[in-house]
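Posting this for the archive.
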Amino acid sequence: MTRLRPDLRLDDRDIAILATLSREGRITKTDLAARVNLSPTPCWERMKRLEKAGLIHGYRAEISLADLGPHVQVFVTVELESHRAESFQIFERTVERMDQIVGCWAIGGGYDYLMQVVATDVTTFQAMMDGLLESRAGVRRYFSYIVTKPVKEEPPALALLEGKDG
């Protein structure tokens, strides 16, 4: 039995349900139950409990951006001018409104944030960054890293989070 939060206990089957759903969100209830060695009703009840506990936030499709058309994916490290709480809040509110920024994480180390941006091309990406610099978001400097090819994109191995081999 794993204790990730004081109010939540997960066993191996709960972890198996989460791991399977993170890889195959559209799996049928019957197939999911078979994979985790449960009958469908108890499996469904566990899944609903995991949703209610907030461990499952939603179900998404993985879209092939390359097949949709030309695009560029860029990771950007950002350093803010000020490290006051208000500065972080202003930056985060600004980023939340920018659709081209598809991921943003506050990070420790030499930079304050890591952003993931998807744009139609480099010119569009740069225009977005110019707009961010001109806004009141408080960006001191940034560094861009253009993705040249995906190497690995997998959901986390949840068993590793509880100290087991993946």
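The chain has seven helices and six strands. Residues 19 and 156 are 8 Å apart (CA to CA).
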